[in-house]
Design brief:
The chain is α+β, with helices and mostly antiparallel strands. It contains 17 helices and 22 strands. Strands 10, 11, 14, 15, 16, 17, 18, 19 and 20 form a nine-stranded antiparallel sheet that branches. Strands 1, 2, 6, 7, 8, 9, 21 and 22 form an eight-stranded mixed sheet that branches. A hairpin with a 6-residue loop joins strand 17 and strand 18. Helix 1 packs parallel to helix 9, helix 2 packs parallel to helix 11 and helix 3 packs across helix 4. The longest helix is centred in the C-terminal third of the chain and has 24 residues. The chain starts with a strand and ends with a helix.
Length: 592
């Protein structure tokens, strides 16, 4: 056996997954097409945001590294939605892309039991020695290794696929297209076709990115300056904050911008029919915004620095795959950008994804034992969603190698639980993006409570060391002390952070206790709902059950249960189109 685990891809999912498995003592190989590109922020130079910031803090609470990486590379910090309730507030930070990338690679290279190899995986080696009690499950066998483009054959006990947009990726800029996963970087060819040939349900999705322009070509007198707040840590285990703060800027498209785009829309590969993959509805290209909202006379353009040591500026809101000359023309119609110089054009990228309905909530394939998938390969979008899946895939590979039960987070425990449950139970019809509205228990999933919710689980998994665990225990004791002081003093104003009895404690901890007190009635109501729902989650189902043999089930239920193979009554009940009668029957069968 060459390795215990092979991780395919060095993006945000691959980083978390490979670090987790190796930290837990298993010999791990990270295969990437270019080690220089480990940890690249392919699109916007930022981490976090609404609900995404919650994901980052949850990854950190479990023992992941994304929060440390953004702390180390942060050049602006803000809490979004401060004017709204705490359930929809979240941290977001601009990153110095080069610092983030270098820090990620350094972590990978310094990690014991983790090796890096520059190559492309083209096939999996499958031992076809596993049978299933259910005809519909079509289990292929157990993954036992990989083949690479350069002819290497490497054996392993588990594989985590985290290839991002590179799996059979193809980029588009107007009439130009090329087999690439990012502009100027060759795609990962072969593996997507191999998986299709093996019977995996694969599809095509589309995403895109805007042009980058030269800072020196911007007229800052015509645009609005957007300052950040005082830099603050994302991580509950703070170590860094070494960068200086930089502002962002805001401007708007104009009627002229919209005219140029409309007149050239036929040259868009998306509208011209060259792109078949489905794009993200909630992160549309500027072409989509102009065509879908014709009555809107302007759209925001956020100008964000790519780092402290480069003059490239990211045009958030102007994602496009129109020809470069057209991009330059409509960008220069935006106030402040009249003399903008394009450094890199915007482009669309189309890529293969694996239907997440073919995955268990552990992120292991239902079709191939030992094969896990994480990140955009599962149909999600975003760095944060990828990192969340990566750490869970890593934890569950380690659990499988140790012969232990997989860790599956509930929808009431974490945004990560919502994310993975949505993917593996509901599937996708477009690139999945996390929103606070997707979490029905978001009041108890606040970003400031992620450590109390998940650090014990990270400790149980072996990812929280003694020193961090002691600090966490000390924090819990301190929060209890603050809570007792608040009750004793009858403090009930959220803004009260300078009361004499509370001055000795960190303001963030005091604020958290005050929020818990203010929303205690709602939180208790949520807990009662969670307790009621958890009864359905505790009723387990056999994943190999032959649903077609259950005569009283509706035909729709037979088909959907056979395809998804829910592991609990709760998961079965969340499958769209399932009737209450089918769930009641399933409950009776499960209890028998």
């Amino acid at each position: 056996m060459d390795y215990d685990c092979i991780v395919i891809g060095g993006g945000h999912a691959g980083i978390e997954a490979s670090l987790v498995v190796s930290k837990l003592g298993f010999n791990t190989l990270l295969i990437t097409q270019n080690p220089d590109r480990i940890g690249v922020l392919s699109c916007n130079p930022a981490i976090g945001g609404l609900s995404k910031g919650n994901l980052v803090r949850e990854v950190d609470a479990l023992g992941g590294v994304m929060a440390h990486l953004i702390d180390q590379s942060m050049i602006q910090y803000r809490i979004l939605n401060r004017s709204r309730g705490p359930a929809v507030q979240a941290p977001r930070a601009q990153a110095d892309k080069q610092v983030y990338q270098c820090a990620a690679r350094q972590l990978i290279e310094n990690q014991q039991h983790l090796s890096v190899m520059m190559d492309t995986v083209t096939e999996l080696i499958i031992e076809k020695n596993v049978t299933s009690s259910c005809e519909k499950s079509a289990i292929l066998g157990h993954v036992s290794g990989i083949y690479t483009a350069r002819g290497h054959q490497i054996s392993t006990k588990a594989v985590i696929l985290s290839a991002g947009t590179f799996l059979e990726g193809k980029i588009f800029i107007g009439e130009y297209d090329a087999p690439e996963g990012r502009l100027g970087e060759k795609n990962a060819a072969g593996l997507g076709s191999f998986l299709r040939n093996q019977g995996f349900c694969m599809g095509r999705l589309k995403t895109g990115t805007p042009a980058r322009i030269a800072e020196k070509s911007i007229d800052f007198s015509k645009i609005e300056r957007q300052e950040g707040e005082e830099l603050a840590h994302f991580s509950f285990d703070p170590k860094f904050l070494t960068q200086e703060s930089r502002p962002c800027w805001i401007t708007y498209t104009t009627e002229e911008t919209h005219r140029i785009i409309r007149e050239n829309i036929h040259r868009s590969p998306l509208y011209g029919g060259k792109i078949k993959g489905i794009g993200a509805r909630y992160c549309p290209s500027v072409e989509d915004k102009i065509m879908r909202f014709p009555d809107k006379n302007r759209h925001h353009v956020f100008i964000e620095p790519e780092g402290l040591h480069t003059g490239e500026m990211y045009l958030n809101g102007l994602s496009s795959s129109l020809p470069e000359a057209v991009q330059e023309q409509f960008i220069q119609s935006v106030p402040g950008l009249e003399k903008a110089q394009l450094v890199r054009p915007g482009y669309a990228v189309e890529y293969d994804f694996l239907d997440p309905l073919e995955l268990y909530p552990s992120l292991e394939s239902k079709r191939l034992n030992g094969f896990f998938s994480a990140g955009q390969t599962n149909g999600s979008s975003g760095y944060e969603e990828a990192a969340a899946q990566g750490i869970m895939a890593g934890i569950n590979v380690a659990a499988k190698l140790r012969g232990e039960k997989a860790l599956v987070l509930g929808r009431d425990e974490a945004y990560i639980g919502v994310l993975i449950d949505d993917l593996t139970t509901l599937g996708i019809s477009e690139p999945y993006r996390m929103f606070t509205s997707r979490a029905e228990h978001r009041l108890v999933l606040r970003h400031d409570t992620a450590d109390t919710r998940l650090t014990p689980k990270g400790r149980a998994a072996g990812l929280i060391n003694d020193q961090r665990w002691e600090r966490f225990q000390k924090k819990l004791n301190t929060l209890q002390t603050i809570q007792e002081l608040v009750k004793k003093s009858e403090i009930n104003q959220i803004e009260t952070t300078s009361h004499a009895d509370l001055d000795a404690f960190p303001a963030e901890w005091v604020q958290r206790v005050l929020l818990d007190q203010k929303y205690s009635g709602y939180i208790e109501k949520e807990k009662r709902i969670i307790a009621r729902n958890s009864k359905m989650e505790q009723v387990k189902l056999d994943p190999g059950m032959d649903y077609h043999a259950i005569k009283s089930l509706s035909m729709e239920a037979k088909e959907k249960f056979s395809a998804i193979r829910p592991l609990t009554i709760g998961q079965a009940a969340r499958i769209p189109g399932i009737r209450q009668g089918d769930i009641a029957l399933l409950m009776v069968l499960a209890r028998r």
